[in-house]
Design goal:
Elements (H helix, E strand, L loop, with lengths): L42 E7 L4 H14 L3 E7 L2 H13 L6 E4 L1 H8 L19 H10 L8 E8 L1 E5 H7 L7 H14 L4 E4 L4 H12 L6 H6 L8 H15 L14 H7 L3 E6 L9 H6 L7 E4 L12 E9 L7 H12 L1 H7 L6 E2 L14 H15 L3 E2 L4 H17 L4 H12 L11
Helix pairs in contact: 1-13, 2-3, 5-6, 7-9, 7-15, 9-15, 9-16, 15-16
Length: about 450
């Protein structure tokens, strides 16, 4: 099967690293009417998850219990990697659990056998959620059935910027490559010690950058290739590679950026030494003044925007639903569990856990409370990120072995000028069809 690489952060300033990878089967063990249901007014729910942080979840649970005094929630929070092992074992063993968090991309098909389909317990409130996020969650399941409700989504690439540096140079947030070039020149003239643009030079990140640029003019390209029967040597790929390389050819990005590994890009931005930092929406915590203060990040103001348009088109991002909430088929408190899940994905719950800014909530058109972000740049930045993530051009999906062994380095070779875009595309296509990297319809 295609292995979905979906890191909340790889060397994140926020130090939030949720590793997602997984496979399995689907189905549904038992039917709801096989378990005797609690029909009384009171219910004690057991909730297992790995996300959000425990303190945030406790605040949400406290608010829920105040609104529903006859329902109590006992919480158990795991580390991400341990959770991927423990939850399937517990469910297969009939552990008494009423609500489970599901790492959508990693765990869906390893726990579906033990969860009730959402249409057996959810009401019309599901229609108020972002349809793309719901559809992605169902599509990941081998049988196409929705077994969990997504709390939100993450996406990349997103461009974060140091508002103080831009103001000092007298430039606005760029929306095109030409504007970006002018901004970089002005920033360099105002302060030569500032690195205009930073992002990871690691091979895995090159896929995010490449599709983020290529899909500005070829939306759906990633889905077409990685999940379908599209080819790597098609014109849209070659055009995307050339467009990405033009950022270096035109002096917008320095090739030294490609030597930045691990947490180095985030460290440079956090120290106030870079104007633009490109990463995923898992870095949205940078928009929070209180978060920056608590973590010693020396940046007065941070905003966010989609990547500037390199060769026309429209803003693009690859995104994938995350943080699914499901109900085990063995639960005897299905109605109460459904009430809790509805609370968590509604404004009442999201206004509490979304403060962490890691996920863009799945509630369609969701807006953060005014108190969360204190500057116009931060508020506009979150709204801009939420808009593109809510309507992604493709889902964040990778053939991990191919990315690590072929694709990432082929893109880097183009950026460094050692091969042409045509040569890199031909090489990727040859490897893609070699049989060594199962994908799409070959799975």
């Amino acid at each position: 099967m295609t292995i979905r690489k979906n890191l909340f952060a790889a060397g994140s300033v926020a130090a939030v690293a949720v590793v997602l990878a997984g496979c399995g089967s689907s189905g549904g063990v038992g039917e709801q009417d096989e378990v005797e249901q609690n029909t009384g007014e009171a219910a004690d729910l057991t909730y297992w998850t790995w996300f959000p942080p425990e303190a945030t979840l406790n605040a949400a649970i406290e608010a829920f219990e105040a609104e529903h005094p006859n329902i109590s929630v006992e919480l158990r929070v795991f580390e991400a990697a341990d959770y991927q092992q423990q939850l399937p074992l517990a469910l297969s063993g009939g552990e008494d659990i009423d609500v489970v968090g599901v790492q959508v991309s990693a765990m869906t098909n390893s726990v579906n056998d033990f969860l009730l389909p959402v249409d057996e317990w959810a009401g019309g409130w599901v229609d108020e959620l972002n349809p793309t996020m719901v559809e992605q969650t169902a599509d990941i399941s081998d049988d196409g059935v929705l077994y969990s409700v997504p709390m939100g989504s993450i996406g990349s690439p997103i461009m974060y910027y140091n508002a103080e540096i831009l103001d000092a140079a007298g430039v606005a947030v760029p929306t095109t490559a030409a504007e970006w070039k002018d901004a970089v020149d002005a920033i360099s003239a105002a302060d030569p010690d500032v690195t205009p643009v930073v992002f990871s030079g690691e091979p895995w990140w090159q896929e995010e950058m490449f599709f983020g640029i290529a899909e500005q003019t070829a939306p759906g390209l990633s889905d077409e290739i990685i999940g379908g029967d599209g080819s790597w040597d098609q014109p849209a790929v070659i055009d995307g590679l050339n467009a990405y390389k033009s950022l270096f050819d035109d002096g917008i990005v320095d090739t030294d950026v490609l030597s930045l590994l691990g947490t180095r890009p985030s460290e440079i931005f956090a120290a106030g030494e870079a104007a633009f930092y490109i990463d995923g929406s898992w870095q949205n915590s940078l928009l929070s003044e209180s978060y920056r203060s608590e973590n010693g990040i020396d940046v007065a103001g941070v905003g966010a925007a989609p990547l500037p348009l390199v060769d026309g088109g429209a803003p693009s991002v690859r995104a994938l639903a995350e943080g699914g909430l499901g109900i085990p088929a063995t639960s005897s408190n299905v109605d109460a569990a459904a009430t809790f899940i509805e609370f968590m994905v509604s404004y009442d719950g999201a206004d509490i856990w979304a403060d962490d800014l890691v996920l863009v909530p799945s509630l369609d058109g969701y807006e953060l409370p005014d108190s969360v972000l204190t500057t116009e740049a931060a508020q506009d930045g979150f709204a801009a990120a939420a808009e593109v993530i809510g309507a992604p051009t493709s889902k964040r999906d990778s053939q991990q072995d191919f990315l690590n062994q072929v694709e990432g380095n082929a893109i880097l070779d183009v950026l460094r000028g050692t091969v042409s875009a045509e040569e890199a595309a031909a090489r990727m296509q040859e490897e893609w069809t070699s049989g060594r990297y199962p994908h799409g319809t070959d799975q």
